Each structure stands twice: as structure tokens, then as C-alpha cells.
Amino acid sequence: MDKASRYWLLITVDSFGKIRCDELKENRDFFWQQFPELSQQENLRERGIQRQLMQWYQYDDILRQLAKGCLRCFISHQIKDTCQGLAEKFGKKHNFTSAELLPLVVDSHRMRNSNPQSLTTRILQTFDPEQSNLSTWTNRILKSDRTVKQFLLDHGIEQVTDWMILNYMTPGRLARILSDYQQTPTEINQAVELLDNYHQVYRTHLLQIRRTGAKTRYPEPTLEQLRQIADLCQDAKPHIWAKRISPEQVREQLQNLATLLREERIRSRKGLSRLESLNQNQQTINISQSENNEQSDFLAEYQQKIDECLMKSAVLVIQNRFDYLQRKKNPRSQKKAYNYITGLYLFHCQGVSMANIATELELTDQPEVSRLLELTNLRKDIGRNTLSCLIKSILEVAKTYVTAEQLKNLDNKIQPIVEQKIQTIIEQARKDASTGTQQVKNNQLAQAICQCLKDRTEIIRRK
Prior knowledge:
single chain, mainly alpha, 3 domains, two-stranded antiparallel ribbon, globular, disordered C terminus
């Protein structure tokens, strides 16, 4: 059985950099002894086999080494398949073959067991058979490996989507980059306006997608999103655009912009060896003090967890405050609870001033609205809950990038970074609230609050 042989044929690299495949007879006999029924089956139950092997590897002192050998063999074949897949996808255009990439990631033939720092060891230490199968996990870890990413980067390949690149580009930085490319002021203004409108539409929809639990990180914009971006370009600053652009033209211009930014990223990141820029202030952190410095993947998951934790915290804090106000079953308390939700919605989602909110809710004056909304406490409570959520989430994400031993020392290193990030978000929300209501809608905290409130429109309608 060809598939079964992947559990006892080990792919390694010899001292001359050549790939070899050796049969481990002891592991072959062990495999058939433990799974004799598989000799009569055409299709292997991979998940069940891997779950059982992992149990022996983790908990059985007698069978551990044999189970580990079978798992190493399977991983070595999956590493080979993934390298071949990368070569088929990029090799012809970027001038490399799988024979050049594979020796960089498979174990050395001289070692009876995998090196403690090897890719195989990291895959085994982080694999959970209850969450995924071993082929999928190996593929993920290999593609996020620093050596693989650097190899691809040296060949002009960065494996992030156009939409992720655009999502994390700021208008100010884009303007500086485009000026270096000697683009005209009109071209720069158009590109900056396009990016800003992309952020307004795409980020809001992205939060909605992630609220459903979808795993996709940065999906391609839908036709409706492209239409909305085109409308914003025309309506907001029509003098920048000579004529109305279509959704198809929006897509093309965004992709052209992403291509230019991708080239700039590749140019600036060649030789980069540390995980940088966990926030827009370019604060540097070497998160694992080892080879696990996978910048793009970790940064993407880090930013996603910020959005998720802000949303969860906003929901928790606002719901608790609403429940507290509503606790007394008299009409006045009920009215106050619904005024609270409506006031937050008007302030954060529509940019309505406190004075106008007072009129809308039939309250006495602006100070009464301030006492009702308690924005200072709201921001503080959301920040505190976000901190707790984000630290837990990042430590969970970090399991993909660091070893179990390194994970133990990671908590103290991450906490000050996360605290600073959340403090920046909260402080920006405070500044925006004090400088003008229209500015409020654009900050990250307000967007999370607004999305939370939009999901509760049935409450907003009732007063």
C-alpha cells in the first residue's frame, strides 16, 4: 500500500545535500502490528492513525520512539509534497526547483531522531490531532517557517494576499512610498483616496465575516464592496477623479497598487531576521529569540485577534451596562437602558454630537448625555477586557511559531507590548471624541463598538 508506506519510508538529506529515502523496517513491522486491518483497505483512516500514533508518542514510554518514527516518516513525505507544490506554483517564474528547497527543511540523514530545532520537531510539538490532520498542519508550519519564507523572499515571492497588504497600509505611508516612485500629486491623491475608501468598506465587512467564525483572513472584495468603494470615490471628493470609475476599475487599481506595495515590501524585507512592527509605531520585539520569526503570518493573526477581542469586549461591556440599567422593571429604567444603546450608536456610528443626542433622546442637556454614556468608563472597561482576551489569544497563536519551552517565557514579553497597543487604541478614541464627532467614526475602538451596536438593531429601534 503506497499510502501506508509513508509511515515507514523516511526522506532525509545526506551530507552532500542529496535527498534520500530509506525504509525503516522496525517502524514498518510496528505499523502493521498495530494496524493489521489496514492491509485490506484501499483508503487509510489517516486521522485515526495519526491520533493513535500521537497518543503513543506523547504518553506511552514503551511505544514512544516507534510511534515517533512513523510520524517523522509521514511528515517527511508531506514536507516533500509541499515543497513540490511550491515549486510547481512559483518555480518556473521565479527560477527555483523543489530540489533546492527540500534540503533546507528535511532532517539530516546523520541524525537517528529529528534535531530539537528542526522543522519536524516543531511540527510534532505543536500538532493536535483533534484540531486538524497532520498533512494540513505540516503544510501550514512549513509555509510559515523562517527558512522557507526567506528562501521564497530571496526569489521575489511573498505569500500574502493583495487584500492583506492593502488592509495594513496607511494612507500617509502610501503617499510617501508613491512619492519615491515619482508619481504625480494627482496620482498620489487618487491612490490615497482609493486606499482610504477601501479601508472604510473592506474593514467593516471583514469584521462582519469574522463575527460568523469564518477562518478566511482576507477574502477578495465582493462586487458590492467594489461598488461601494467606487461610490465613495465619486461622492466624497469628485474633483480628484476626472470621471466615475467602475467596480472593475476599482479592483484593477487596487491590485496594481498592491503589486507595487508588494515589490516595496520584498525590497525592504530581504535579510530581515526579527519579528518587527507589532504596531504602527514600528516597535520591535524578538518574540521567540530563536528561528521562529515569521513576521507576516504572526502579524496577520495578531491584528485579527485585536479586532476579535475588541469586538468581544465591546459586546460584553455594553451588554452588562445595558442589563444593569434595565434591571429595574419600571418604564423610566427601561427608557434609560434603550437611550444608552441609542446614544452610543448615534455617537460612534453616525458622528452625532452630544448636544444633538440630547435633543434626539429628549434629555436636558449635553452633561446628561455624558452621564448616561460614561464614555471614559466604557473605554476603560473595554480596554481591560481586551487586554485579558488578547494575551490569551496571542499565546494560543504563538504555539504555532515557538516551542513549548519558549512558550513558558513568552507571557512576560508579550504583556507590555499588548498593553501599549491597547493603550494606543483607547487613547486615540479619547482624542477623537474630544476633537470632533465626525472623527470618532474612524478609530478602531469606535468601529468595534459600532459593529457591536449594528448587530443589535432591534434594541436601537425600541425606546
